[in-house]
């Protein structure tokens, strides 16, 4: 055991940490990457409602979650992030569920990005079908796995290059669209005679999917320079950048073209062609394809630290804790995770996202509840950042995501099944995480915190209540398929937990 510890310490010593600059691009790459994927909101919910969603949803989802992540990262900047926060706030069982649900959701998400990348490639090479489609998807996963084994610095540089390539045509589209403003982009506000559940639920669920993941980068806190300082700063940069990335190109395209009924997946390429010509449309399509590579790159980085941390706590095989002797990365966890991504790359996009929504909603709810739990159980932890608003702020960051999750899942339809399951899993872990903030304040008040959610108790109430409410609203919108398989995805965690509990470590946090 001593030899193993010495080897692990030596491997960690060679780990090259990410600076704030590269960390910002990795975070943006994971949470947003580009505006692609929101197009169905416009035709389903209406242009006005879509634009309103992108101004309102952040206040009920990513902003409260970001405040929680900033506070808890400043208090406990540890590998595994919100998994360890939830465990410290609520104990082993709920901590295990947060980690298990998140890792399960990551399998689906990785498969989604590989499939989408190859789907875009088929635009130029329609003969890519069947086994050829699968081989290319697996090839992309292999390349991204190699980049991640090299470490967070390599991932950060790769993410920065990809994002600059992606955002350049988006910026040009915004400028050209605004220069050719001929229509009111908010009219009609909702589709005439559209079914209410479809109008409000589908767009909301897509919005939760688009604005999820701001706590996920906490899993690599030990690989970032001065995480207590840099994590809150990165969130302050990335959240408004993400909102602008979704809102501005949608506004500009609608203002220039006005044909909201024609919007569908991949429509930004068509908008670019109509506004800037064929060459611009091709460029935008390439940017959309590259976006999926960027998303996969950051997903592998952030989600593979979850099995690593759980293996350190003896919930998973110890082999997953092995670090690369040269790069200091959890190479076994990376290879195992990407192997599962590759196996799922033969599934259709819709089914993958549907299950993912369930898992993501669950983890999101756990995350926001962790803020409350940590305030109760660890009030001694020093916090350089607190959720603002005192109790009201804490209620907000918990209730808003829960309401959004429940409402969105109430109103889901076919295309968004994939996203729906994601919302279930993501909401559960997010709610646990925001509750951990409350729990850590109570159980570990001694921990130093470089950031506290502003607003004292009111701020803590906000960051807990908002994600919880959003999650509940979104989850209630699930269709029969999602209600059948979403709970199955969630219940696997409690079923597996007692089987692995006997081997867990008594390691204290």
Short description, anyone?
The protein is mostly helical and 509 residues long.
Task: Kindly report the CATH topology.
Answer: Amino acid/polyamine transporter I
Radius of gyration based on Cα positions: 21 Å
CATH superfamily: Amino acid/polyamine transporter I
Give the number of DSSP strands.
2
User: How many strands, what sense, and barrel or not for the largest sheet?
Assistant: none
Broad structural category: mainly alpha
**What count of domains describes the coordinates?**
1
Q: Name the poorly predicted regions.
A: 412-416, 505-509
Termini distance?
20 Å
The CATH architecture comes to Up-down Bundle
Share of helical residues = over 70%
Give the mean pLDDT. 80
How would you spell out the order of helices and strands?
HHHHHHHHHHHHHHHHEHHEHH
Structure annotation, total helices: 20
């Amino acid at each position: 055991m001593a030899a193993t510890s010495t080897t692990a310490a030596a491997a960690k010593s060679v780990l090259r940490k990410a600076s704030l600059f590269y960390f910002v691009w990795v975070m943006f790459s994971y949470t947003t990457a580009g505006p692609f994927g929101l197009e169905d909101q416009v035709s389903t919910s209406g242009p006005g409602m879509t634009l309103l969603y992108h101004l309102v949803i952040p206040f009920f989802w990513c902003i409260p979650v970001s405040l929680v992540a900033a506070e808890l990262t400043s208090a406990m900047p540890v590998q595994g992030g919100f998994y360890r926060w939830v465990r410290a706030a609520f104990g082993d069982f709920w901590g295990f569920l947060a980690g298990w649900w998140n890792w399960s959701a990551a399998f689906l998400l990785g498969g989604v990005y590989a499939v989408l990348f190859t789907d875009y490639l088929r635009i130029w090479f329609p003969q890519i079908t069947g086994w050829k489609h699968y081989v290319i998807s697996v090839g992309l996963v292999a390349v991204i796995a190699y980049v991640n084994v090299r470490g967070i610095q390599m991932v950060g540089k790769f993410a920065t290059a990809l994002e600059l390539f992606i955002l350049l045509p988006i910026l040009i589209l915004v400028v050209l669209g605004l220069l050719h403003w001929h229509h009111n982009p908010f009219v009609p506000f909702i589709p005439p005679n559209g079914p209410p559940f479809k109008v409000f639920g589908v767009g909301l669920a897509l919005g939760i999917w688009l604005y999820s993941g701001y706590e996920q980068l906490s899993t690599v806190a030990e690989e970032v320079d001065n995480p207590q300082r840099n994590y809150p700063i990165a969130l302050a940069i990335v959240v408004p950048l993400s909102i602008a990335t979704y809102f501005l190109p949608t506004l500009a395209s609608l203002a220039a073209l006005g044909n909201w009924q024609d919007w569908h997946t991949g429509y930004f390429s068509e908008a670019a062609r109509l506004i800037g010509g064929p060459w611009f449309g091709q460029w935008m399509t390439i940017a959309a394809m590259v976006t999926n590579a960027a998303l996969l790159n950051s997903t592998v980085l952030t989600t593979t630290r979850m099995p690593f941390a759980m293996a350190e706590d003896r919930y998973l095989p110890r082999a997953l804790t092995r670090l690369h002797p040269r790069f200091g990365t959890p190479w076994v966890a990376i290879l195992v995770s990407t192997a599962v991504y590759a196996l799922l790359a033969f599934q259709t996009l819709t089914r993958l996202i549907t299950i993912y929504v369930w898992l993501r909603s669950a983890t999101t709810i756990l995350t926001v509840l962790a803020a409350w739990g940590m305030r109760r159980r660890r009030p001694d932890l020093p916090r350089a950042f607190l959720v603002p608003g005192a109790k009201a702020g804490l209620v907000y960051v918990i209730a808003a995501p829960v309401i959004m999750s429940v409402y969105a899942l109430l109103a889901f339809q076919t295309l968004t099944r994939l996203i729906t399951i994601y919302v279930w899993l993501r909401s559960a872990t997010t709610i646990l995480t925001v509750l951990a903030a409350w729990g850590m304040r109570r159980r570990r008040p001694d921990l130093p915190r470089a950031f506290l959610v502003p607003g004292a108790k009111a701020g803590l109430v906000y960051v807990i209540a908002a994600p919880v409410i959003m999650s509940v609203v979104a989850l209630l919108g699930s269709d029969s398929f999602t209600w059948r398989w979403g709970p199955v995805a969630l219940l696997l965690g409690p079923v597996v937990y007692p089987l692995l509990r006997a081997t867990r470590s008594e390691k204290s946090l």
